[in-house]
Amino acid sequence: MTRIKxxxxxxxxxxxxxxxLSQQTHQFSLQQxxxxxxxxxxxxxxxLLDVQLQRQVxxxxxxxxxxxxxxxxxxxxxxxxxxxxxxxxxPDFLSGSSTPLEEDVYFPNLFSAPWAGNAGxxxxxxxxxxxxxxxxxxxxxxxxxxxxxxxxxxEMIRQNISKVYYQLVxxxxxxxxxxxxxALIEKNKHDTKIMYDNGFAEMLxxxxxxxxxxxxxxxxxxxxxxxANGYLGLKVLMGMPIKxxxxxxxxxxxxxxxxxxxxxxxxxxxxxxxxxxxxLG
Length: 281
Known about the structure:
This protein is an alpha+beta fold. The chain is built from 8 helices and 6 strands. It is elongated, with a radius of gyration of 41 Å.
């Protein structure tokens, strides 16, 4: 029994160690989160694959316009040549006599060679094909369009990650304010209870504080659920495994708010990647 307990404890310790090692912890600022997403986001990876696919298609179109050289070669080796069968009573043509054969005879097949080979080369040149020449002219535009789609995907991911990131930061700030209000209401309730016991307050005052505490606790639970869902959404946007832990290090400061307002005031729609991609399309 002692050995079984020791073995069980060792297995549990090994499983816990493997789980702890597999669950990495990431402490990311917004910039680090954006850099991580640029390398791991699925949409960005698919957009980069589309660029590579378009380059291969361009090579195929370019190759169609070049002269095509085709070569063929073959060899046939008759390991065992078939024989000619002459039944009994047939004329003996091979010996030059018309005398009938006295028995069935198999003669060598003089019309089949033991082996045969062939080879050939052909050259062709495409003189005119509207689709090919249109594809040749559109090669650079198609590559530019796919590369611009990569930039559009990256920009959209950056915007979404920034929104979710600061929503989570704001949620943590909101949660801290709710905790502060709960602590304040609990202190007021404690003081009111003492005043009630001494006849200086009514039970209605305590009931009002209980209602406020209930509302604050409900609000806190709602914010906690929103934060948990926000972390899951942020991990999906970043391409991070759900089981890994994510800690946000940035805080929402007055300087960040001013910077965002100034950026919005200097907005130029011609610099948007989706607008530029629409022009190429």
